């Protein structure tokens, strides 16, 4: 059987006329711009069906499972988002109690809402001196599970957006001691299996379902992701059923071929590609580490479980010892050096490296940071206000679901203190909620939101023309 992406590549050469969707009929002249319409097909003869695969797509998913050493792998063309919704749904019954790392991505919260799940939260450790989250404590997970035997699944994100890795093996042990599954959002760690330079993947550490965005760190198109089933605690039939619920019924063959060709490429040349990448990355890290004002932060293992491990492909550049803020450094990199970075926080920027990077790309970043760092020699670290970090435990006043469905009032930020949030509020990225509907709005949260707005960070979930308001649960609701 031919591979999906090869067959798709050859199909355009065949003289088959398309009396079927998509509406562009593989005819570039009817399009407003150049897009690969020649490759854009639907479930036509011989091309299998993602939702009921029995041919090329099933084979492609099986090759993926072999490459990642999973029991079964599923393609997602709706990112890790759909895969997370499906994973949580497949591992729970409506209304179940689940243990959730509070720094999970918004898609996890959406799954909780859709399935009416009752979350207990576990907060990540602090990361002293920076507005970063640390890891999730395995000891705490164990304790919570022993005290709450009605919990039916554990959900964590490891690595985080910033590359912080938790002790997945011990967290899995704690979950399995209660005979419940561990779902690991490894959206940012699809590259882990390809080099010992990176932390071990949750696939080999006891994660029962592991979700990875291929598009984030592997050579694959945006929206593409994998869901790996790694143990018998998970019913793959239920996973497939829920993938059908959450994914489009018209999956793109371009996206599926992208996953298939990514797997093929990494199976044949992954070792060499990652050897080159990790060598260039390590050299770049060595150069960036010379900065005195723009400092490369490399979290390392700490015995107190604060940090278990770190993904060195995340280049965290702290502005704490400079006159700059994270957004100011981002602007300089963009305006003067034409470098776009992945994310900015109040006191850092995150440059994300991947196997697709070139030596020239790394050199550009290193030279830019070196120049900015030298300039900072002359700049007095300005009177910057201390970055706010609203990561402390939030008080739940209402179930999330009840707050979402409540009548809402719009309040000015300062007037909302002491009221109950009716919306998710988060920085985008990383889209991990600062406030979850149903939580008490406090002074520190509002101070942090004000500071984020002043820094022009992208705060999502605020209302009013200037984003000066927030929606709260109406009085009496
Ligand atoms: C930790 C985490 N999980 C899940 C997702 C969702 O991934 P996707 O964009 O592939 O849907 C993201 C997106 O940024 C993320 O940061």
Structure explained in plain terms:
There is one protein chain. Helix 1 (4-11) crosses helix 9, helix 2 packs parallel to helix 9 and helix 9 crosses helix 11 (359-376). The N and C termini lie far apart (60 Å). This protein has 3 domains: 4-265, Type I PLP-dependent aspartate aminotransferase-like (Major domain) (Aspartate Aminotransferase, domain 2); 272-376, Aspartate Aminotransferase, domain 1 (Alpha-Beta Complex), CATH 3.90.1150; 400-473, Orn/Lys/Arg decarboxylase, C-terminal domain (Ornithine Decarboxylase, Chain A, domain 4, Alpha-Beta Complex), CATH 3.90.100. The chain is α+β, with helices and mostly antiparallel strands. Helix 4 (106-114) links the parallel strand 2 (97-101) and strand 3. The chain is 34% helix and 16% strand. Pyridoxal-5'-phosphate (PLP) is lined by residues 79-81, 105, 107, 157, 161, 185, 187-188, 213, 225, 429-430.
Condensed summary:
This protein has 3 domains: 4-265, Type I PLP-dependent aspartate aminotransferase-like (Major domain) (Aspartate Aminotransferase, domain 2, 3-Layer(aba) Sandwich), CATH 3.40.640.10; 272-376, Aspartate Aminotransferase, domain 1 (Alpha-Beta Complex); 400-473, Ornithine Decarboxylase, Chain A, domain 4 (Alpha-Beta Complex). It has 13 helices and 20 strands. The chain has helices at residues 4-11, 56-68, 79-90, 106-114, 138-147, 168-177, 214-217, 236-246, 253-288, 326-337, 359-376, 400-405, 443-454, and strands at residues 72-76, 97-101, 118-122, 126-127, 132-133, 151-157, 164-165, 182-185, 209-212, 225-229, 295-297, 309-310, 314-318, 343-345, 348-352, 408-412, 425-427, 433-435, 459-460, 469-473.
